Amino acid sequence: MKIAVIALTRGGKELAGRIVAGLNNSEGCAVTDGVLSTIRRLWSCYDGLICVMAAGIVVRAIAPLCRDKKTDPCVLVLDEKGQFVISLLSGHLGGGNDLARKVAAITGGTAVITTASDVTGHTALDLWAAENNLRVQNPQVMAGVAAKLVNEGEVSFFSTLEYGRFPADFKVVDAPDLADIILSPAAFDPLEHPDTLVLCPCNLYLGLGCNRGASAADFELAITELCAQYCLDRRAIAGIASIDLKADEVGMLQFARENNLPIRFYTAEELNRVEGLATSPAVLAATGARGVAEPAAMLAAGDDTIPGQPGQLRVRKIKWKDVTAAVAEKKLPDMVQTPISKG
């Protein structure tokens, strides 16, 4: 995080100097054109603002600037003695709560945290989703589900995936209609679950093969049809894989670039190590690999903790005129929330 520290009084400036000396990636910023103008000028340039001054003036300055907790910088407010470090804005996603604890350790004061999940010790849903790279399909229901978690001590959770540990305050249920939270790469329609938080993991990998010269439009059509046929959310696609002989395919590379997807290539020898798949005589003759799309997808979705362990094949290869595609699923890791730093 890039942090700006600003202060008004002599005592406040002395405290600001101590904070800058003890906090990495922070710098003191002079108030040269008034507090309101200074905060507005710094707003989009820093990940966090530490204001050693009265809370009222900070609230007035930031009120017209606040847009979205995913993009607003975190804001802390301190008295000039450093007795209380208030996490005022973007406490979770913006990192304000953790920053407040770090600053309080420097000043010898108390971090003032008001977010309910931190106070009660329950999972902070927005932070948990961000830490685990989960795409929130209906963020407007996040607050309601988070409130239920705080009020009732747990929320019901449904997943279509194989996974490791989840937060202790999630109660697993066996049907999406019973869930407060749904986690799946399937295309669940949030309109059909208006009060349920629908989350999409990024854990599907496309294995691709193609005829020489296949265009980006050919790949786009194939993947669009594949996702529609198998009810997959495209936001769940984490990457693309193929054989190294296709590393110069302009259409494949363009498709990956346009969809902001990493792409990796495997040798025929690497692909042939994946067991339990049918051999395609035509592919074997052309490439030396028994198959491309299926084993490439499985290798890309492999378990990071077990070298050489391929992922689970979810969609067997499908052929279009110039494109072949398959989908493999990566097992989700333990998804408990990172412990809150006390330092």
For the largest beta-sheet, the strand count, sense and barrel status come to: 6 strands, mixed
By CATH, the architecture of the largest domain is named: 2-Layer Sandwich
Task: For the record, give the distance between the C-alpha atoms at the N and C termini, rounded to a whole number.
Answer: 16 Å
What is the fold-level CATH name, i.e. the topology of the largest domain?
Answer: Nucleotidyltransferase, domain 5
Top CATH class of the largest domain: Alpha Beta
Rounded to an integer in angstroms, the radius of gyration calculated over CA atoms is: 25 Å
Number of strands: 16
Helical percentage: 25-40%
Instruction: Detail the poorly predicted runs.
Output: 339-343
